[in-house]
Amino acid sequence: MNTGLARSLAAAGIILMSGAGAQSVSAQEITLKFSHYIPPNHGIQVDLIEPWAKALSEKTKGKVKVEIFAVNSAFGNAARQADQVKAGVIDIAFGLRGIPRGRFERTSVIELPFMVKDAGAGSRVLWELYKDGTIKADYEGFKVLGLMTHHGGLIHTVNKPVRTPDDLKGMRLRTPSDAVSAMLEAQGASPVGLPPAQIYENLQKSVIDGVVTTWDLVAAIKLNELLKYHSDGKFYTAAFYIVMDQKRFDELPADVRAAIDELSGDALVAKFGGWWDKWDAAGLADSKAKGHEIITLNDAERAKWREQLKPMVEKYLTELEGKGIKDARQIYAKMNELVAKYDKK
User: Fold this and answer.
1) What are residue 212's DSSP bridge partners?
2) pLDDT tens profile 176-187
3) CB of 227 within 8 A of CB of 218?
4) Could you read off the pLDDT of 310-326 as tens digits, one per residue?
5) Rounded CA gap, 78 and 84, in Å?
6) pLDDT at residue 101 in the model
7) Of 82, 164, 253, 282, whose CB is crowded by the most CB atoms within 10 A?
8) What distance in Å separates the CA atoms of residue 282 and residue 21, rounded to the nearest whole number?
9) Which residues pair with residue 211 across a beta bridge?
10) pTM, 2 dp
């Protein structure tokens, strides 16, 4: 072999080895796309998702990078969060159970009226029932990183305060879920399903008379600019999920899977109650500063509402049974038992 040819082959070998090395480094770099449907300045991103992403990067020594996509991105549609994960265009999603309707229906039972006062308790109940298999069928094909509820929600209105069930008659109210819709219809109100991004405009145009939601969302989308009355009956809760495609999770290196598990599940669920205290505080403080009327139902008044809504609850559970969820009543009983055990508010 002549000297020139030998040098050429040696140079080619160096280039090939260099390319292989670059591919090896690249193979170790993992980007996970994490989407949600909330504004990027909200606590969901600031307190939950961003710290979780940072901790995952640190635990994997920089191997994993998490890209976050909020409501102002192409992946921010509230109705598509779970679908995006299933389709593989997003790796992890935070979503609202009730949008779109007809999904995660075992989980929906916790959204029935007057069950949950405290987010910490509601979240703990959902996670316990997921782990013991009671609601696991809802999440087939998903790696579930966390399940959450918010604190007991309110009815916020513009022109008419809500003090009794009769006050709801004829009102058009934004609803977050099918369970809340059933509650409103049972009291003579008209539920209107709207994602958070569309609430302000519809309230401003009087398409709706008010919203059934949390203090937190009221602050996040500046609804106190339009609202005047807030009925705090802890009427309901909404459920949320953080999910990843199970196949995508299984494909990750063992150390990355271990890091995700360590940062999720029990460790994550334990933080939800404290976060909701913080997130709700801004909306409550703002409404007080604006001089709004806050109507607070005591336990006896809540009990009267709940008693009046018993037929609606029975109908909802019967409909779930008709959809094949034969243990709907057992789920409801188990949730009530656990809420009573954990709820401190």
Assistant:
1) 155
2) 888 899 999 999
3) yes
4) 999 999 999 999 999 99
5) 11
6) 87
7) 82
8) 51
9) 156, 174
10) 0.88
Q: Output the furthest CA–CA distance in the chain (Å, rounded).
A: 99
Report the DSSP pairing between strands 239-245 and 142-149. antiparallel
HEC per residue, the chain: CCHHHHHHHHHHHHHHHHHHHHHHHHHHCEEEEEECCCCCCCHHHHHHHHHHHHHHHHHCCCCEEEEEECCCCCCCCHHHHHHHHHHCCCCEEEEECCCCCCCCHHHHHHHCCCCCCCHHHHHHHHHHHHHCCCCHHHHCCEEEEEEEECCCCEEEECCCCCCCHHHHCCCEEEECCHHHHHHHHHCCCEEEECCHHHHHHHHHCCCCCEEEECHHHHHHCCHHHCCCEEEECCCCCCEEEEEEEHHHHHHCCHHHHHHHHHHCCHHHHCCHHHHHHHHHHHHHHHHHHCCCEEEECCHHHHHHHHHHCHHHHHHHHHHHHHCCCCCHHHHHHHHHHHHHHHCCC
pLDDT of residue 345: 60
Cα gap 187→183, rounded to integer Å: 7
Residue 22 pLDDT more than 50? no
